[in-house]
Specification:
Elements: H1 11-35, H2 39-45, H3 51-66, H4 72-87, H5 105-125, H6 128-132, H7 136-149, H8 154-161
Length: 164
């Protein structure tokens, strides 16, 4: 724990911990939703069951992609949600019950909501005109050579030389 001189944690640290805990709970809620049988039908019959999830999702999207402060905590949370949703499209040779909601309309809409905000954020932060004039093949070769020739740390050296 980080304490101030007077023994109390700063408000910013407490706020960050509260938000992190809320994101963890919401991620667990998504995991529970994914495991429900007939998810779309249940949500249609009981829409209140996703109200809290959607409130946190909307706040995270706003914090990650629509605010000027750019919350990495919110971005990581949203990326974890996308991972869980997109993972349903890949078969991992585990229990087939884990894939009951792979075609869920609700999960598809959640993914679209996150990815739409993310794409708009990326377009606002990327110089599209410069990218359009870029020689893609030449740039990729230059970047690959730069990556291949740089060994800044022991970890990078290990990854390049020892990993197969």
């Amino acid at each position: 724990m980080i304490f101030r001189k007077n023994g109390y944690k700063s408000r910013a640290k407490i706020r960050k911990q509260v938000v992190a805990r809320k994101y963890t709970q919401t991620e667990q809620q998504l995991n529970a939703l994914i495991k429900l049988e007939e998810l779309d039908e249940r949500i249609q019959a009981q829409p209140w069951m996703v109200n809290e999830f959607e409130v946190v999702l909307d706040k995270a999207i706003a914090a990650a992609y629509q605010s000027t402060t750019n919350s990495t905590l919110a971005q990581h949370f949203l990326h974890r949600l996308l991972y869980r949703i997109n993972r349903l499209k890949l078969f991992w040779y585990d229990n087939l019950q884990h894939y009951t909601n792979e075609r869920s309309i609700y999960l598809h809409l959640c993914r679209e909501k996150i990815e739409t905000a993310w794409q708009q954020w990326e377009l606002a932060h990327i110089d599209v005109l410069t990218l359009q004039t870029l020689d893609v093949q030449k740039s990729l070769l230059e970047w690959a050579n730069c990556d291949r020739n740089s060994r800044d740390t022991e970890q990078e050296d290990y990854l390049q030389q020892e990993m197969t």
